[in-house]
């Protein structure tokens, strides 16, 4: 598992990615969807962990085993796909898309350590490093992705490498 700070840092990158894609696909009146998708992306980046906590009890214990249902890749990918296809048709689509981007960023940050994440049926790990180590690599990769996507959407690829200028988003 990546550290809490790494999940927060990658969450801001996920929020920027979500906001850029929502902006490219309409964004809603006064671009409220862009802002909502950014906020939801930041919140979604820690969601797989806080969704496991039984907030309704005093003990605040986990109601579900860590890295099971809330870390299931298919669920996050399904939310991402459904919300993407309803962008512009529902006021809930933009925040749902941002939340899914954040949740997927969380899974990608957890994937390199030995515990792994359940993408389809069982857990899969890249087995690259132990929990909490090499967070800088994960954060840098997420911000690089945010820069490329944001630059493509908002700056229309002005600073991109020539072969990236024609990369389709949305």
From TrEMBL:
Entry keyword Hydrolase: yes
UniProt cross-references to Pfam families, sorted A to Z: YdjM (PF04307)
Recorded GO MF terms: hydrolase activity
InterPro entries: YdjM-like
Keyword line: Hydrolase
Record-given protein name: LexA-binding, inner membrane-associated putative hydrolase
């Amino acid at each position: 598992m990546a550290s809490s700070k790494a999940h927060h840092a990658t969450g801001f990158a996920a929020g920027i990615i979500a906001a850029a894609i929502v902006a490219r696909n309409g964004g809603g009146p006064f671009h409220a969807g862009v802002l909502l998708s950014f906020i939801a992306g930041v919140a979604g980046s820690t969601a797989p962990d806080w969704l496991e906590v039984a907030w309704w009890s005093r003990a605040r214990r986990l109601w579900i085993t860590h890295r099971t249902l809330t870390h299931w890749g298919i669920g996050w990918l399904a939310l991402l796909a459904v919300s993407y296809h309803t962008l512009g048709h529902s006021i809930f689509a933009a925040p749902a898309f941002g939340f899914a981007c954040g949740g997927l960023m969380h899974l990608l940050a957890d994937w390199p350590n030995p515990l792994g994440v359940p993408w389809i049926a069982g857990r899969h790990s890249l087995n690259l490093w132990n929990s909490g180590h090499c967070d800088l690599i994960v954060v840098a990769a997420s911000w690089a992705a945010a820069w490329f996507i944001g630059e493509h959407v908002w700056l229309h690829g002005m600073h991109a490498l020539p072969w990236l200028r024609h990369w389709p988003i949305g």
